[in-house]
Amino acid sequence: MSETAGASVLRARGLSKTYGKDAALVRAVDGVDLEVAAGETVAIMGPSGCGKSTLLHLLGGLDRPTGGEIWLAGRRVDQMSEKALARMRRNAVGFVFQAFHLMEELTAVENVELPALLAGRPPRAARRRATELLDRVGLGDRAGFLPAALSGGQRQRVAIARALANEPVVVLADEPTGNLDSAATVEVLRLFDGLHAAGQTLVIVTHDSRIAATAGRMIAMRDGAFIDETRLTGGTRGDLGALAGLDG
Amino acid sequence: MGRILLACSLTARGLRRRPAAAALLLLAITAATTVLTLGLVLRGVTSQPYQRTRAATNGPDEVAYLRAPAQAAALVRAPGVTGASGPYPVAGALVRAGGLVAAAEAEGRDQAAAAVDQPKLTAGTWVRPGGVVLERAFAEALGVGAGDRITLNGRWFTVTGIAVTAASPPYPDRCAAGCVVPFPPGARGWRSDVGVAWVTRPDAVALAASDAAPPAYLENLTLRVPSRAAALATAYDAAHPGGGAPFLVPWQSIQAADTVMIQAERQILDPGAWITGLLAVASVAVLAGGRMTEATRRVGRLKAVGCTPGLVAAVLLAENLVVALAAAAAGLAAGWLAAPLLTRPGAYLVGAPGAPSLTAPDAGLAVAVALAVALAATLVPAIRAARASTASALADSARPPRRGAALIAASARLPVPLLLGLRLVARRPRRAALGAATVALTVGAVVAVLTFRASAAAASHAITGGTSGPGYPVFARDEQVLTVLTVVLLTLAVVNAIFTAWATALDARRPATLAGALGATPWQVGAGLAATQLLPALPGAVAGIPLGIAALAIANDGGQVTVPPAWWLAAAALGTVLAVAGLAAGPALLGALRPATEILKAEAA
């Protein structure tokens, strides 16, 4: 759909996902083409049920497409085995979910270090990296807290730290502020802004235009297909509070 | 009335929603009730076959063992004696059949039927010159039937028939109530088990002559008041001290010796019923826990439309109690039908003992135990579910997991499957403990069987001195009972392993899916879920070894048991653990293969 200036790290061609058949056929994703350059932040917007989350799951290898191709970091992923997909998710993708999906019996730091442990990193190195990431998201003093003892915004910051644990090629965020109040939304927006500034590739699915405004490119989606694309020069730099409807 | 109907309707719908789970629950409780019923039925079965045999053979009230035929005259004339047969000459005989050697009392009989104690033929014909009739248990132990040829003290005889009697306990307990077998020289130092063989009078006398030993004699008596037989025998024996013949054996002593096997079986079945019951409780607890996890949202909906916590608890309880009632009925029927197979020692008397009686209190007890098993396992989860807040139930929020900080820290150093497995175990420590207990009981049962085999072999060797004698019906029957019990226990253990793996897979859906989303491969997730069964199974298996040996020692009235070779025990423990791992792998892999998006979306909803 769009040409990007930098090297492409994530690419989809003719991507589709259908459920059911005949009269009950549902096209959740319908012939989507997408190219995301390294360091780019792309926001995908659309109403509930338009296929945004399904698209994100397809891009991240959580679900398999019915048709089309997906390339991540130069490798075609839609034909990978489950094992290879898991390795790809482990090393190249970081997920941020609307519902946080933290392990409730693990502390913040244990949650953040988990992807590194699953990747076979030494426990000490995993813990060191997790501690650094928690410091980076401003939760260094909450490392030993269980998720139940954290606010919604803090939980999402832990989830973002977890997504970064294995230094992924791309972070896929599914309605990252959907469960947050305005103040917490600002916290998360700041974090994404920082990640963007640091050159992290981001794909954010949202129906909130304020979040979309933080991206370099915004794609509108409806009925499983892309219907519009807007390049936003300048992105979010500056007045996040105003964007989020707050004073700062 | 309306509320009861509503509860019944909801219960029926709840059962229909999960037919497989209901079937497994039915199986678990049925197994427990079957074993319990067997134990209860055996309690009342002991007297029936003997009494029937007494009636069918005109069994004696007293059996008199005499040194000389003349000693019979005074007994026959004694007050209260109403009938007699004998005196019959009795010779000690060394029996050789095939490669087996055994001792027997050869009783010389008339070819005509006797008025008192005419053994009832179950095969072939009665004695004739050169022919021998063997008591049924003895013939089975020797492996011979009508028409076979055997030797008695070196003389060839044809087995003309097989018969049962009420004048003597079956092999090998012929001498348990009393006998005067004059062992032939070749049998000296031979094993103490003695069978009975009926030959003609001249053949018995000839057999005694071949040993250069005078025959003993046997007189069968009937009394006007049979119940006084024991008192009469005591008085007679007191008047004839010395330990040898003459002495009297009352029918009560013969009956008591006859029930030795059934008593031995009850010694195994009684603790077996308890162990089976405990396993059933474990099964039902795991199953009920799993069902409650699934039922959370349903509970929320019921409460949202106005069901009171009491009604919700009643519905959840009723789902399990209805199954328990059906299982109790099935278990009662199965136990009642299976009991004759275990009481076949009684069939060494007359014919098959028939269906043992099942009294109303026994049936009531079995039903009560089945209901108690279901109640004990489901009451707490049902009340907990009923008391949960409607909002959280509607949100389908699972019971919060426990946090085992030490295990979480320790698992960080382990390979991914063990890391996941250990953390999942730490989430549900009670379920892990239940799994360990189940495996301990299963390994314990297997070890008990192995220990019994080793002990029986050692006891048999000690008695025979390594020579080849016929098998021991008591050992064979006990082993059969233990094997039946083990099969029941293994079935329950299999059901338990599947239940636990299934419940764990359900409970671990979200963490397992998250692990997958964070990069764990399906194999790692599946192996992690299987490890949740394997990790508690290991200590359970180790604990089961001493448990099984101790259980058998207790069932043996604290007697000595022979510990089987270490590799037998290791194989039993390892085999059970591997079986648990194999059984857990199925549900675990099914859980691991569920699409991640489906679960993540459901959790987010």
Notes on the protein architecture:
- The complex is a heterodimer of chains A (248) and B (605).
- In chain A, 32% of the residues lie in helices and 26% in strands.
- Chain A has 248 residues and is an alpha/beta fold.
- Chain A has a single domain, classed as P-loop containing nucleotide triphosphate hydrolases (Rossmann fold, 3-Layer(aba) Sandwich), CATH 3.40.50.
- In chain A, the strands form 2 sheets. Chain A has a 6-stranded mixed beta sheet with strand order 6-7-8-3-9-10, with helices on both faces. In chain A, strands 2-1-4-5 form a 4-stranded antiparallel beta sheet, covered by helices on one side.
- Mean pLDDT of chain A is 85; it is low at 1-5.
- Chain B has helices at 2-17, 19-45, 47-56, 71-77, 136-142, 201-210, 229-239, 251-258, 260-304, 309-342, 360-387, 390-394, 405-411, 416-427, 429-464, 473-507, 509-517, 522-555, 566-593, 596-604; strands at residues 62-66, 81-97, 100-109, 120-124, 131-135, 149-152, 155-164, 194-200, 216-223, 247-250.
- A 6-stranded mixed β-barrel of chain B has the order 2-3-8-5-7-6.
- In chain B, a hairpin with a 2-residue loop joins strand 6 (149-152) and strand 7.
- The A-B interface holds A 53-54, 57, 60, 62-63, 82-83, 86-87, 89-91, 95, 97-99, 101, 103-106, 110, 113-115, 117-120, 123, 126-127, 146, 148, 162, 166 and B 400-404, 408, 412-413, 416, 419, 423, 426-427, 510-511, 514-524, 595-597, 600-601, 603-604.
Question: What's the short story on this structure?
Answer:
With 248 residues, chain A is α/β, with parallel strands linked by helices. Chain A is built from 8 helices and 10 strands. Chain B has helices at 2-17, 19-45, 47-56, 71-77, 136-142, 201-210, 229-239, 251-258, 260-304, 309-342, 360-387, 390-394, 405-411, 416-427, 429-464, 473-507, 509-517, 522-555, 566-593, 596-604, and strands at 62-66, 81-97, 100-109, 120-124, 131-135, 149-152, 155-164, 194-200, 216-223, 247-250.
